[in-house]
Backbone:
């Protein structure tokens, strides 16, 4: 993963068969699970920024959080509406203002506590329509670049990628339910 060896428990042939069949069967796929006793990795490019931050399979944070209002704001600037699915969030938040999620350093949803790691720098994959698989090569990435770039002091992190959504890590595990209230933790 990201040019590093990383451990994982193979979930077996039955899971592999199901996954391979579901994904079209041209290649064999294996499902692996990261367990707490396995050695994590540090994202090499972020080492100076987050010296104590460890992950297994994701690049920076296992949870990507995005609000419906932010997607609606972006859609209002485009010729064609986009949906949250285009950005592959783990958690979609409703009933807030556009980009409120940018300021949520720590949140609680039910019994789950999440800690913000960093903004999510967006890439060319945002130009792929999740319904059709067709890539536009331009939108919504170009529009995001027109108003969602990082501060000059953060260019060494994000380079030219626009920011859309927030990456979080799990501070306290639990079960999430659709419709639960989101609480911003203020210290």
Residues:
């Amino acid at each position: 993963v990201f040019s590093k060896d990383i451990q994982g428990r193979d979930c077996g042939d039955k899971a592999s068969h199901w996954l391979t069949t579901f994904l079209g069967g041209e290649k064999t796929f294996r499902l692996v699970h990261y367990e707490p006793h396995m050695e994590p990795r540090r994202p090499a490019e972020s080492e100076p920024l987050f010296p104590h931050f460890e992950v297994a399979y994701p690049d920076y944070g296992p949870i990507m959080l995005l609000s419906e209002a932010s997607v609606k704001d972006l859609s209002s600037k485009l010729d064609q509406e986009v949906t949250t699915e285009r950005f592959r969030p783990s958690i979609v938040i409703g009933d807030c203002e556009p980009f409120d999620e940018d300021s949520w350093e720590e949140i609680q949803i039910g019994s789950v506590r999440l800690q913000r790691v960093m903004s999510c720098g967006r890439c060319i994959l945002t130009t792929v329509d999740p319904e059709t698989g067709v890539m536009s090569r331009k939108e919504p990435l170009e529009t995001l670049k027109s108003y969602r770039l990082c501060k000059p002091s953060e260019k060494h992190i994000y380079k030219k990628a626009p920011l859309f959504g927030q990456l979080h890590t799990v501070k306290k595990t639990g079960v999430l339910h659709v419709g639960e209230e989101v609480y911003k933790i203020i210290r």
In short: Residues 13-22 form the longest helix (10 residues). The radius of gyration is 18 Å. The first strand starts at residue 9 and ends at 10. Residues 1-39 form one domain.
